[in-house]
Specification:
By secondary structure, the chain is mainly alpha-helical. 66% of the residues lie in helices and 0% in strands.
């Protein structure tokens, strides 16, 4: 039962913030060309990001539902729950390292001590 709760806590701590940050960065255009006529690349990137978020939502939901249900009913987890747990962590890592991270602010130029 302790393993079930640890799995649920890890999924809740990693996957749910990744979903929120990924949904916020879904339409962001990091690294894409600024040409407004090139919409094909933007559509492809947004569709792939949406698919990644849907997979993360599905695996996280299934893992949370299975682990909490197993803890409540006091039954043993199926082997595929661990597979979905690892898949959830990998998808959350993918989202957080690609389009789920915050934009860095541009570095401020250092002020020179000399007067201008």
């Amino acid at each position: 039962m302790l393993v079930d709760l640890v799995l649920a806590a890890v999924v809740a701590l990693f996957a749910l913030p990744a979903l929120a940050l990924g949904a916020r960065g879904l339409l962001r255009r990091n690294g894409l060309s600024g040409d407004p006529t090139d919409r094909t690349s933007l559509v492809v990137v947004v569709v792939l990001r949406a698919v990644a978020l849907l997979l993360l939502l599905g695996t996280a939901g299934l893992t949370l539902l299975s682990t909490i249900g197993a803890a409540v009913q006091d039954v043993e987890l199926h082997g595929f729950v661990y597979v979905f747990f690892v898949a959830t962590l990998l998808l959350a890592l993918l989202v957080l390292t690609t389009f789920g991270r915050r934009d860095r602010r541009p570095a401020r130029r250092p002020a020179t001590p000399a007067r201008r």
